Amino acid sequence: MRRVFIDLANEGDTLAMPVKDSNGNILLAEGTKLRKATKDKLSKHGVRTIYVTTGEDLGLIQPLEGNRDEAIKAISRQPLKDILLQKANTFSKSNTRSVILNEVIEEIVSFMLNKTSLLVHFAHLRLIDNYTYEHSLDVCALSLVVGEKLRLTRTTLFNLGLGALIHDIGKTKVSLQISRNPGKLSDEEFAQIKKHPSLGFVILKELEDNIPLVCCQIALQHHERFSGSGYPRGLKENKTHKLSYVVGICDMYTAITSHRSYRKAFSPKEAMELFMGTCNSLFPTEIVKAFLDAVVAYPNGSKVKLSNGVLAKVVKQDTLSLKPIVKPINSQQGYEIRLANAETLDIVGFYE
Ligand SMILES: [Fe+2]
């Protein structure tokens, strides 16, 4: 089974999971073969991604139905550490695997699994919406990669990673209908969503599990922006904790590179170009630079679709450009394209 964006799913693919709308109504049953009309119908209902069958198990996180106890058991069973480590290695520009990241991820996962009341809230995230849960794992892995670039101490890296993992915990207190809405929110609904940082702070502070204060601050401040344009408090510049800015930029990156029914996803390269213009407006320059230095737009080995329709594999990173060097699938041996030199050619998305 693998998860694919609806736009990139192939006609003839078989659904590995039923597709439901935001109210939980089944739109298409498991086992349905995708056709053009089916894809259009799903897009119309705001469905962003679907699960299709493959011959191999790629170890992706499966959506979960059921109650909290089942969700907690599923998290305990899930090789959370392996998933976080795999994500961190994928996002990182560095070719060498970091021992510190490995150990810090291990500490974060043990902390989470040993703190019952925190685990209950974390498991709840997954029941609300698999997207929010998977997003939390992405933000955690990305934040650790950026934190390592910032040469944070081991304890600070732990706090950063844990704070990133639970930054959206306040969404468990926002109405289910709003949390699950994949479409554009009304002003009233957005006002409700904007409460999740403060709600998260209260949840974490009130837990008996002794969550480090800075992790609570990350939950409270991850939507604050350097210019004061963020929420909930509109804090300016260094009034926001540095770690909250790290989680903020990683949160924004994963959000804008994901599809929404009301807008197309930014490609990773477009998102990074956007960040280049955000120094000292959305995030401090130091954090933007660390992000751009640490995170790779198209990881080596990823399969991409080019603007001329050709399918290719990323073989190397280009140190002078965000565009990598790719090798078209089915090309002759040794034929590679340095996309930085091919002005009219670009990557338009991933494919599996
Ligand atoms: Fe958030």
Automatic annotation (TrEMBL):
Keywords: Hydrolase. The keyword Cell wall biogenesis/degradation does not apply. The lineage of its organism: Bacteria, Bacillati, Bacillota, Clostridia, Eubacteriales. This is HD-GYP domain-containing protein. Its EC number is 3.1.4.-. It is an enzyme of class 3 (hydrolase). InterPro entries: HD/PDEase_dom, HD_GYP_dom. GO terms for molecular function: hydrolase activity. Residues 110-307 form the HD-GYP domain.
